[in-house]
Amino acid sequence: MQIDVQTVNIEQKNQTFSHLKKRFGDKKIPSRYQEASYDLQAEENLHYRPTWAPEQELYDPNLSKIRMNDWYDLKDPRQFYYSTYTLNRAKQQETMESNFKTVESLNLIEGMPDPVLAVAQDLLIPLRHANYAANMNNTLVCGYGYGTVFTQPCVYHAMDNLGIAQYLSRLGLMIGDVESLEAAKQDWMDSDAWQPLRRSLEDLMCVRDPVEVFIKQNFVLDGLLYPLVYQRIVDQNLVEQGGSGISILTQFMTNWYLESKRWVDSVIKTMASESAENKAVLEEWIDSAANHFTSVLLPVAGLAVAGNQADELVSEAHDELLQRAKKAGLFK
Amino acid sequence: MDIKKTPKKLNVKEKYRLMTRDLAWEPSYRDEKEIYPYVDYEGIKVHDWSKWEDPFRLTMDAYWKYQAEKERKYYAIIDAHAQNNGHLNVTDARYLTAIKLFLQSISPGEYASHRGFARVGREFAGVGPQVACQMQSIDEIRHAQTQVHAMSNYNKFYNGFKDFANQRDRIWYTSVARSFFDDAMSAGPFEFLIAIGFSFEYVLTNLLFVPFMSGAAYNGDMATCTFGFSAQSDEARHMTLGLECIKFMLEQDPDNIPIVQKWIDKWFWRGCRLLTLVAAMMDYMLPKRVMSWREAWNIYGVENGNALFRDLARYGIKPPMHWDDVEKSIDHTSHQIMLGLYQWKFGTAFHSWTPTASDIEWLKEKYPTTFEKYYLPRWEYAIAQKENGGEYNNFGLPKLCQVCQLPTLFTEPDDPTQLCHRETDYEGEKYHFCSDGCQHVFEQEPEKYVQAWLPMTAMMQEPLKGDLAAWMEWVSLEPTAAGEYANSEDKANFEKWRKQVSTD
């Protein structure tokens, strides 16, 4: 039976689900982000311990050294749930698609000076392997972290990293066909400049504390790498040397970093303000990883700029990272 | 390297290989075992991860584009549904029982799959299955979220929806689905894929989704049938992943075959037990029926299952061990479950009812050999009690099966007049089962199943100690959400609002 129900005004029984009412009251209708994120993970009466590690719980907050009274405090300021996430990325990929078309139709790659292309090849294309490691690391955090508001953005972040690796691969195919990807992989495996980074990522892939992985990958490494490579080397150095075409094809990475660091910073700030113990753990991780990755990235920067300038750029990125940490309430 | 070379045209397969497979590398600073610590312990041997055939070739940009298109449509429809009081379009409020059960049991399962696929998407040592599993992980959180969003509007007007999060963890019947997904997640990565990717998504998904979504469509529930249709192309990808993973395991090493067979036996049985709730929904909870459980089983179980296992026979895989028992149970389970739910209706966050005269005619026609003979007399007894001002309740607590967590209310496969009950002694304790299938599952891994959280046992222990009122509070069960449909607020409101609509 099809009936006309549009005109009827009937009184609602419930504004919202009880778990959201408990958290946010029922004065306001909860957002779709809240409905999609809070308390979705099972909390109690987990049936069996993992056969792979019987000392753990199926969802286990103690896998991390970080302690939270409520892991659902770690909300994502972007309020990404699946729908808002995909809609955003779909829009960005449309832009990227037209960027690729523009670069192609204007023959921007062919017109680019050789030294610029060489930097793109030597510096950018091997990074697709680093993005693969970031994809794996974020998948781990999503799988083993605690509480949906913390773990959910990590699966998005993992897929974003895969997307970035694929954009870099397309760039490689454009500048040098399959041989570009082969040469980049050779560099990644063997060349001196990349070995410290590859080694560090293999090390990080052995870490099982989900928050430690989150901090070292998303805050420290990405927090050094993106400002260094995309903001400074690509968007400044290469553009000045006639490489605007490269900058157009890495626009996604630049915007993505600016967008996602809001989320990463907010997570760190909330964890740090929870307790002095958390703060100390975060400071220890960040301090050691920031120093370590700064030295790891130095030879990488050296692929694009001369030694002195590489020093300068890397230490600028390092300072910027520490500023972010301070803003999040650390090292004070 | 020759820069600025005219790119060759790459075919889709080669391009996808470069965009995914080629991203990974063989670690040399750390041992693979440190990076993938859980990939060996189940005994599955993989000699060459690159033999994995990508079941679908979606790069992220294409994924974002297609999925966003579907999301836009989906939310436009459920917004319109909410705005236009679409909930008043359902056939009648009995239908809501089906979607309450779905939200309390299945949506949390979608979420668990999301987390489980993230884990295996990290634990496999090959980039092909890693990426395929990660994509399924992100799809599964989509399904959990779209379902919550679709139900959110029903929650505004009806009882039984609002406490799904607490009830997922505490109320007795949700532990059927919870224990199923917890079981899969606590298994190793390969077993998880056989459990969810193969048995659930490939073998059984049509028995869950087709009835549910057509049921929604038949009964005027636009919101639910929209998420069903929107999820369909995701499900198609998940099914190909399920099939690919089993073929991959079987082709890698003959030693894998008996392990995989054991998992198929287990998860087929586990899945069929879980689906008895769907059987009850199809035969009893839909005011307008799509087809009987028996008819659905004949198409999606028997026909599809036979074709699949004929195909797998070339690897030496046999049909699941307890297939015959399932076949024998098909004409019985829906009646047994619904009678169970009805007699314990004071303890469920959904309503149940006795079948109407026309329901009875339909059930007789669809189950000519069983309904009238075994189950109609029990329903008639319940109806007579109501007519005499009484109520048909069973305040005794059901004994739950240690494995599937359903009450031990099923009958012997070959004698529908005998309740089936099995028990096993393990380390000085007695454990109870509803069937040979569940007992078999237990005996393969007793150290796992002794850990099961049994809601009835919990109710008798501290701090509840058998206090029914305290239990109801603990599971957030309000009396208005439970009990006989005929006396429910949901029914009264629905009818009042519908009347209001037709007189306006």
Q: Name the quaternary structure.
A: heterodimer
Q: How is the CATH topology of the domain at 85-354 and 470-503 in chain B named?
A: Ribonucleotide Reductase, subunit A
Share in helix of chain B? 55-70%
**Looking across the biggest beta sheet of chain B, what order are the strands in?**
1-2
Shape summary of chain A: globular
Mean pLDDT of chain A, nearest integer? 96
Under the CATH scheme, which architecture of chain A would be assigned? Orthogonal Bundle
CATH class group of the domain at 85-354 and 470-503 in chain B: Mainly Alpha
* CATH homologous superfamily designation of the domain at 85-354 and 470-503 in chain B: Ribonucleotide Reductase, subunit A
State the end-to-end CA separation of chain B. Answer: 78 Å
Continuous helix count of chain B: 20
Main sheet attributes: strand count, strand direction, barrel closure of chain B: 2 strands, antiparallel
- Low-confidence segments of chain A: none
Named CATH architecture of the domain at 85-354 and 470-503 in chain B: Orthogonal Bundle
Number of strands of chain A: 0
Sheet with most strands of chain A: none
Cα radius of gyration of chain A in angstroms: 22 Å
The shape of chain B is: globular
Output the number of helix runs of chain A.
12
Largest interface, Cβ cutoff 8 Å: A-B, 100 and 108 residues
